[in-house]
């Protein structure tokens, strides 16, 4: 799993408050964190809009500079909805302007959409970055969902290692996660019992324990930016609805 700087969690409202009230050093630190966390979804969106790899990379950096200059993130408020939606809306306007500028300067260069090879060189799979999604918005949302899930799974893995429950995590990963992420059939509990040298009941008990820990960590992660429990529930529904869609 990636480290925190490579994940895609929703932005904490407390971080945005630091943008409004902090000095220039604090603002630079927070904006740097936002860039690290949101870079891949923004890149996925721009790639799906048809910008070539190098151009998309340049536009990612320029988008964040543009947002900083226009104090976009400082304007974010919980009452105005989810930060993810605010960023996507700003990105849509920015990409449209960038496209119009390119059209005015020259025709789009050959190559068009980012290639799968370039995505893999970027350090992620095509599924994670969303280049196979139907629209740029789908690419952005798919990347959000998968990177958020990766962050929670990483936290579960660390917790299981700390508590000596590595088998719990391995069973949960095989039975629950890989079928979601890779679209493969889940093994039976009998097959896992044979693989791990356990009884089927022991496999079932470990699966229940890991699932509860996963659900807790997922809610804790989303609660860091959601305004209330209803929004937590809504974000979880969005997360799994997104992951259930074909790429």
List its salient traits.
mainly alpha; 0% strand; elongated; disordered N terminus
Describe the structure.
With 247 residues, the protein is an all-alpha fold. The protein has one domain (4-244). The chain is 71% helix and 0% strand. It is built from eleven helices and no strands. It has helices spanning 13-21, 24-48, 53-69, 83-105, 116-121, 126-129, 136-162, 166-182, 189-196, 200-223, 229-244. α2 (24-48) packs across α7, α7 runs antiparallel to α8 (166-182) and α7 crosses α11 (229-244). It starts with 12 loop residues before the first helix and ends with a helix.
Task: Give the overall form.
Answer: elongated
Number of helices: 11
Radius of gyration: 20 Å
The biggest sheet, with number of strands, parallel, antiparallel or mixed sense and barrel status, is: none
User: Termini distance?
Assistant: 21 Å
Secondary structure: number of strands:
0
Number of domains: 1
**Portion of residues within helices:** over 70%
Portion in strands: under 5%
Short description:
This protein has 247 residues and is an all-alpha fold.
Write the layout of secondary structure elements.
Blueprint: H1 13-21, H2 24-48, H3 53-69, H4 83-105, H5 116-121, H6 126-129, H7 136-162, H8 166-182, H9 189-196, H10 200-223, H11 229-244
